[in-house]
## 1
Amino acid sequence: MLRLSDRVNRLKPSSTLAVDARCKAMRAQGIDVIAFGAGEPDFDTPMLIRNAAIDALLAGKTRYVATEGDPAARSAIARKLKGENGIECSAEHIVISVGGKHSIYLALQSLLDPGKGQHVILPTPAWVSYRPMIELAGGEAVEVAGAIERDFKITPEQLQRAITPQTAAIIINSPSNPCGTMYSPEELRALAAVLAAHPNIAIITDEIYERLVYGEHKHLSLGSLPEIAQRVITINGLSKAYAMTGWRIGYACAPGSGGIVAKAMAKLQGQMTSNITSFVYSAIVEALTNGAESIEKMRQAFAKRAMLIHTLIQAMPGVRCPKPTGAFYIFPDISAHFGKATPAASMITSAQSFAEALLEEAKVAVVPGEDFGECARSHVRLSFATSERNIEEGCRRLRGFIESLR
Ligand code: PLP
């Protein structure tokens, strides 16, 4: 009889991927579902980036490469981070991995040990994978709830109160999945001022949505702030901004303490996956060097959709939600409808039951808030990485569903 590890038995499957799978299954049965579930751009990867990979493949770049990545791609990433983000780094501080997800996983595995009681501060609502990845590394997630009135952002006072001698790390994600909001440079500087007084805390900053911003704020990289730069591990990747989710390209930049974290991550990766696919490195260089125009077009489309979906959702009865300022999500509070029944007599008692009934009865897929943290239980996440037509039709159905609740 085969037996599984406790580690795997404790692990919950990703709820966002589950919604996506359910949606695909319904579509395969011919059901017309409007999907607000998937966290991926609906655009195709820009042609110049695809061509770079094709050329590399045809040129025979098909062999093993250094685990951390091809030197030209690491240099291009370091140049971008230095030039655009103000992070003092060089190619040796960069590790290219199988998506941003893998980069975060490697960072946490490199920083935490089981049995040591290490805490990782997690401002919530937070992306569904952080908690499982913290726990797989043996750490404990300490949630700090961002209030809806503050666009779900935590305050320096909240951060100060959450720090204890056990705090080993913090994960900051701005712009945020699932909140669709972002910290202003001043707000990040205020959080950094608190962290500056705690020199043993590692700061993981997930900046994967940095290019997708729509409000008045500019994105600030925490790794550019000298008072904490030595402890910052910047995570980024090409999935979201360049519409390259299937390529699986993420990277980490960790220049602190002579790059020990980057070296540790590479050592770990060397026993896991080795290098990422050899012929995509040229596509990284192409994207970072010549991709700006293509991603700006996509950003503008997302910005328009952000306004559209916000206008439609905030006008729905009993729904509250801040305006999206970054990433491609909107995260409304729908708890005013808990305790009501649907026309098919399902009781809405939670975000989960709301999402299930919405999918079954109105054919609209959203992700329930539960897995984004305790404070997210009143919310559902909608991704607006879909056409304006889908946004209009999906919101029409959502509104009809809400109005039908008794
Ligand atoms: N970080 C956040 C906040 C995300 O939303 C995602 C994807 O959904 C990732 C990281 C991982 O992206 P990938 O592994 O596709 O690069």
Note: The chain has two domains: 6-44+293-404, 48-290.
## 2
Amino acid sequence: MNFNWLRRPRRNRSSSQVRDLIQETSLSTCDLIYPVFVKADIDQPEPIPSMPGIFRHSLDSLIQECKEIATLGIPAIALFPVIDPAHKTAEAEYALNPDQILFQALKRLKKELPELLLIADVALDPYTSHGHDGILNAKGEVDNDATVALLQRLATVEAQAGADWVAPSDMMDGRIEAIRIALDNANLTETSILAYSAKFASAYYGPFREAVGSRAKSSSDYLDKKSYQLNPANRREALLECQLDEKEGADILMVKPAGPYLDIIRELRNQTLLPIAAYQVSGEYTQIHAAAQNGWLDLEKTREESLLAIKRAGADMILTYFAKEIAQKLNRQPLI
Ligand code: PBG
């Protein structure tokens, strides 16, 4: 029995060769940025319980890990320091200590792996005793401009230590312009700014906060960053933040988290000519692993679908904890 349908869309899905030719978006190793954690004074990498396969690295194990990353063809890492609570203060002074682990790591990586692009986060949460991304005023609120002044200095020292891109993740007003000016004044005109432009006050950051130890005092309390991070309900406000960062001189705009915010990525893609990064955050990684551990989801298929969806939405590059395993898999696949 045959109807004479004029259009039979299934013809375009009829074999793997046809499907390959039809495929609109693809994922490749060169789209990926690997977030890595580094901690001072440890001998062995420390596993992070809620993030299977991810470690807090010592300086030496970080170098080893990054050699592997570079060999796999991953173009960049995003570096996050894990700071000893003894060094954390309300005013985050330790952030600018020239001996702190982030600067040490940047210097060594730049020297030993000059071809690997280094992205340094610009925010104070690793260094504050209260866990906020900025310092507080007398009323206990995050003080925007006092924080921006510190971020200017942090970004400058990061760039001087070897960061190719600095990535402000704090969501303070005016910080992109302020950091651009500070970098240019220090003759760091080649350093790019990857702006966390649309960063939402998300529950998906939980495992990351455990990894860097920036949780609220009581572990059941999730630190409230709603006075600076975006309300998950707001699309226009997110796009406005992106517009401002573009005007202030950002080189690349970021949306974070990625999976639950694909509409923002797509709408931003339609509005800006700048490159777009998306951060598939710790909780997005964790939920796929947790379901896979229970046998409820297929790890590899879900992982690849989640990343492909982020590309399809319009992201040019993705920060993802899956970067290494994806690169290992893609590199293993024969071309013919
Ligand atoms: C803080 C920062 C966070 C992440 C990156 N930088 C957490 C937060 O805002 O509380 C989250 C990344 C992740 O969850 O993987 N400056």
Note: The first helix runs from residue 16 to 22.
## 3
Amino acid sequence: MTEKNILVSASILGCDLANIESEIKRIEKAGADFVHFDVMDGVFVDNISFGLPVLKSAKTKTNLPFDVHLMITEPEKYIAEFAKAGADIITFHSEAAKDIKKCIDICRKNGCKVGISVKPNTPASEVFPFLGEVDMVLVMTVEPGFGGQGFLPFTLEKIEQIRKRADKLSLDIDIQVDGGITDETCKDVKKSGANILVAGTYLFKADNMKKAVELLK
Ligand code: DX5
Ligand code: ZN
């Protein structure tokens, strides 16, 4: 199995959103590697979060790269705008895209890295045909829509399947996990082959965020 550095992407869905600038500074100081920006449209998932104007503004407050997780239907309609608003990596859901190839192309054309995501019950085989074309696969470890849920252990097998397949094809992709990640649950996901850990509640509820980031790594 490929050994990769563990990176942490802090989900600001779990922060004090009225003080987003200081919360992002806190993430920075704690040593997180990305700002994870969860976009929800109330259709693909049963929740509405934030979108383009917030990204545009938040982007001016930090040099950390923005890892944008689109939980929206027909992502092909909005990818270019999220790229222009400051996304560095754009992840869309395989279940939501009408045309996965087209989504990948729009990300690339707009200078973004590309991630493809699968919900807990979507099989690994859905992303296999695209492993050579994306930078990252995001394996949801909870049902998308809300922070603060419990990690679903049955997703570990899928992480392993994707890492094995990528290794077999000599593809150096990132595998990101998102949902219920803590200093405990991170152990198994890392063992299974994930190397980018999204964390919201665990980081923002920690007494010492820097220590929490270190424990995840
Ligand atoms: C859930 C989001 C996650 C969420 C993670 O749909 O995609 O990024 O913020 O939150 P925690 O770490 O609290 O599970
Ligand atoms: Zn997310």
Note: The chain has one domain: 7-216.
## 4
Amino acid sequence: MKFFADTADIDAIRDLEATGLLDGVTTNPSIIHKSGRKFTEVIAEICKIVDGPVSAEVVALDHATMMKEAEVLRKIADNVCIKVPLTIDGLKTCKALSSEGTQVNVTLCFSANQALLAAKAGATFISPFVGRHDDNGFDGMQLIDDIRLIYDNYQFDTEILVASVRHPVHVLEAAKIGADVMTAPPSVIHSLFNHVLTDKGLAAFAADWEKTGQSIL
Ligand code: G3P
């Protein structure tokens, strides 16, 4: 499973990149707003830190303007992945860009039928929002399971990029289903490393090692 960081926080991205476990970055207009940075500049900076795909979202609602925005964004760096909304215009743009070899991440997906359309449009990634699905009384992980079944039925190459991830259980369930990618805020990614018994065990090892009076170096 690929791990993407869902943020435009440069320090947090550098920190995760240093673990060697970061496979890409996703952003959206809300994340860019939160960063307080100029959109194209922060995307360029992120693209220099990570080698993997960096999702940069168009903000237009019509196909023609989306294409113009995509032209600006994809010139930033080779690893820019254009993010488009799951609308008719967004999928028209997805079809056009993917046919030119540009990576496209189709976002704001909330149904398996929407994911089916995105795959037919040649999406590189589909981003079902599991957290927001759960927030509204739907079953976010069932959506992922349905998409996985449909994509496997037709051997679609589109990768399931689980988004709106709120906690480690979302990551666990997505991995058990066989999603290709998960994107999460740095805080959620960091929480994946933690377990109280690991901490306790390490403390006990350290205490017993101390008693040996030895040093490895
Ligand atoms: O990539 C989509 C993600 O940023 C949305 O997360 O928590 O706002 O639903 P959230």
Note: The CA atoms of residues 67 and 184 lie 27 Å apart.
